[in-house]
Design a protein that fits this description.
The chain is an alpha/beta fold and 273 residues long. The two termini are 18 Å apart. The protein binds zinc ion (ZN). The site of zinc ion (ZN) has 5 residues, from loops.
Length: 273
Amino acid sequence: MSQAREYRYMIIGAHQDDCESSGGIALKLLDLGRRVRFLTATNGCSGHHLSMGGGLAARRQAEAERVSALTGVEYEMPDFDDGSLMPGLEERKAMIAAIRRFDPDVIITHRPWDYHPDHRYTSQLVQDSSFLVQVPNVCPLTPVMRRMPAIFYMQDDFKKPMPFSPDLVFDIDAVMERKMRMYHQYVSQMYEWLPWVGQLSRDPIPEGDEARFEWLKHTEFTAISAGYADRFRPQLQEKYGAAGANVRYAEALEFCEYGEQLTPEAARELFPF
Ligand SMILES: [Zn+2]
């Protein structure tokens, strides 16, 4: 890899607010002046208990735009329906074209084992696209990539058929507050849908923007990143030495064997923190 190259990173999640699982990594890359694009494979039209369809998708698009304005991350949202994503040919071609247009060095996505079918199929679509992004006769009007991107899975807690295994770990303490600010932009999710569906604290949500943000910072979303720091403590200490013992919040990545296989030097160049 040449030093002069501008590295590009594509984080591919199923829904608005999924890419933020690697939000600390994204913020650190953006701070280095590198380009980061979030691609959500669905339009978000099902993630609510009161509103639905086009109105909800438009609201979630506006929320994603606020995250973009706040951080500088680019956002792309193909118009596949939330809750109905399939790993079909139409979806695969859309994924191949989206990856080629951005031409990333790195892709980060869900693991193919996950409770949500949209997450599983998003991962499947990335895997199905991984070789084909270089094949000129597939989607022939979209210029091919001349190399394979490195592909990684974002950390999760699922255990079967096998738990997440960290190849790269990251101290995100310095950007944790900003990561939570990203989540804070998804009002329809953090303060409405996720509490209703039981995936976030059911404690009463305070009124007012900053009061709500303080509430959010004391929910599972913060606890999850703290849990990863504990779970990956040995790897954090191996990477950061004694300082690894004091890391409060962490993220991690696992290599996907279908992407470019990076040397340790190349991985350090791509993630120099
Ligand atoms: Zn999701």
